[in-house]
């Protein structure tokens, strides 16, 4: 069958608007389309392909498990899931793991657990969930409601209740509405979709203190910031603040769908038999790939190299900006970086993305004013250099019309 981009409009629901070419093959941080054109990948499948495309060890893990056992349901447990859960608990504050298939599902589990934990331990009046404007937590109806972007949550009828939003990095605003009625505060420890916004030290520590003061659980959504992205295994490790519940997905499977919610033994008690579940969650195939990805990422060499590469990117963007003056600042941490456009280019992030695509570079946006980069953590210095050269040509095109 001859497959073309035009087919998308004929057979797919119109909720996406993909690029004009169809990628067919990837290796490391390079991708080829149907015409054999080669792209450098600074997008990483939206912070997912943490080890690039078709990493030989992930392919081996997939093949090995694919010939043993794919799926059982949670009527049975399995070895890869137990090994992965053991490694995640050994590597983090957490003592218990719930597996899901995506970030939204991990967050849905976290929010339901927070509500149930409050009900079990404090009573039904403790139901308020506080989260932050511009936050993103997924597209199920509960997670989109907790997320702080009306464009994603409105237009679907009545929303789940008792959800409040305040400005990120505004501790006083949180202080003003948090109370003993608050069951949880949910936040990204580095806002991704919302524009690559880091929390201030005072803010993130203040949020923790307010949660403690009011017996509210602190949920860190590390779906985008987790698994080495910031140069720590999880971003919380670099902030000096430990959450009560952490969600992880995206990079966890290195491109294979998986999500997880991590928490303490005490909080997990409220997820009693039958309270929550998933048919596929924790399936052996996903867990085998994720286990291998975690083994590779969670080493000092890989994590330290993320910090080194951050500087290579920052130096490259600074040199481009010296010439073309498009960014007000480059922000973010590790290999989750955002070029925030200055006042001359407000609202035009998409133009930079389109121009980059024309130069055979894949990148992302985070809102209308930020060009976002989330490459594989193991991207080679050569690919960074070539990608930056392509990005410079794209910037030149936008600037010179
Ligand atoms: C991508 C993302 C999600 C949603 O993950 P899905 O796998 O698309 O459901 C949730 N939270 C954050 C912070 C994300 O970046």
TrEMBL record:
Its cofactor is pyridoxal 5'-phosphate. Pathway: Amino-acid biosynthesis; L-arginine biosynthesis; N(2)-acetyl-L-ornithine from L-glutamate: step 4/4. It catalyses: N(2)-acetyl-L-ornithine + 2-oxoglutarate = N-acetyl-L-glutamate 5-semialdehyde + L-glutamate. GO terms for molecular function: transaminase activity. Its EC number is 2.6.1.11. The modification N6-(pyridoxal phosphate)lysine is found at residue 250. Keywords: Amino-acid biosynthesis, Aminotransferase, Arginine biosynthesis, Cytoplasm, Pyridoxal phosphate, Transferase. It is found in: Cytoplasm. It is an enzyme of class 2 (transferase). N(2)-acetyl-L-ornithine binds at residues 139, 278. InterPro entries: Ac/SucOrn_transaminase_bac, AcOrn/SuccOrn_fam, Aminotrans_3, Aminotrans_3_PPA_site, Class-III_PLP-dep_AT, PyrdxlP-dep_Trfase, PyrdxlP-dep_Trfase_major, PyrdxlP-dep_Trfase_small. Binds 1 pyridoxal phosphate per subunit. May also have succinyldiaminopimelate aminotransferase activity, thus carrying out the corresponding step in lysine biosynthesis. Belongs to the class-III pyridoxal-phosphate-dependent aminotransferase family. ArgD subfamily. This is Acetylornithine aminotransferase. It comes from Fluctibacter halophilus. The gene is argD.
